[in-house]
Amino acid sequence: MGYGGNPYASKFACEFIGTCMLVCVVQVASSQAVEGFAPIAVEVQKKKGLILMNMVYALGHISGAHFNPAVTVAILVRNIPQFPRHDTFNIFGYFMSQYLGGITGGFIAWSIGGHDTAYQWPHVQRDPGVPASGGEIWHVFQSELVFTFLLAFVVLNVATDQRNSNNQFYGAAIG
C-alpha cells in the first residue's frame, strides 16, 4: 500500500522525485553556472549518468523508475503485468508525475544556477553566441531520438524481461 492507503501515491511520488532530481542534476551539470563549485561541478559533469543509476536503485523497487515519458510508453507497448495498459489512472499519474517532476527540477536548477542554467534550452549552439543552423538542429533531434530509443531498449531488456529477474545490476546498465 502507498501512503494514506492509496496504492498509487508512493509510485507517483517516486516518479516525481526521480524525474525532478534527474532534470535538476543534468541541467545544472550541463550549464556553466556551477563553475564556482569546482569539485562538485567536475564530478557531476563527468558522471551525469550516476544520478539516473542512483535514482533507479533507490526508487525502482517502488515505481519501476521510469523517470521519462518515453520509457513509460515503451513499457506500455510491452504491456507487462506490473504496468498494464488498461490501468489508465496509473498511466496518467505516471505521465503527470514525470512532467511535474521535470518542471520542478528545472525550477530547482534555476534556483541553484540562475539564468545561466535556466536558459540553456532550446538553444542549440556550436559556439557561444552563434545559433545553430537548421541542419545542426536536425542532428540534435536525431541524436535525441537515437539515445531515447537506446534508453528505452535497455530498460525493456534489463528491467522488464522475466529472464533477467535476478539481475541486480539493472541500475548500472540503465544509468
Descriptive report:
This protein has helices at 9-30, 38-46, 49-63, 69-78, 88-113, 115-118, 134-158, 170-174, and strands at residues 125-127, 130-131. The protein is mostly helical. It has a single domain, classed as Glycerol uptake facilitator protein, CATH 1.20.1080. Strands 1-2 form a two-stranded antiparallel ribbon. A hairpin with a 2-residue loop joins strand 1 (125-127) and strand 2 (130-131). Helix 1 (9-30) packs across helix 2, helix 1 (9-30) packs antiparallel against helix 3 (49-63) and helix 4 (69-78) crosses helix 7. The chain is globular. It starts with 8 loop residues before the first helix and ends with a helix. The relative contact order is 0.16. The model has no long low-confidence stretch (mean pLDDT 76). Belongs to the MIP/aquaporin (TC 1.A.8) family. It comes from Reticulomyxa filosa. It is found in: Membrane. One of its GO terms (molecular function) is channel activity. The chain crosses the membrane at residues 12-30, 50-77, 89-112, 137-159.
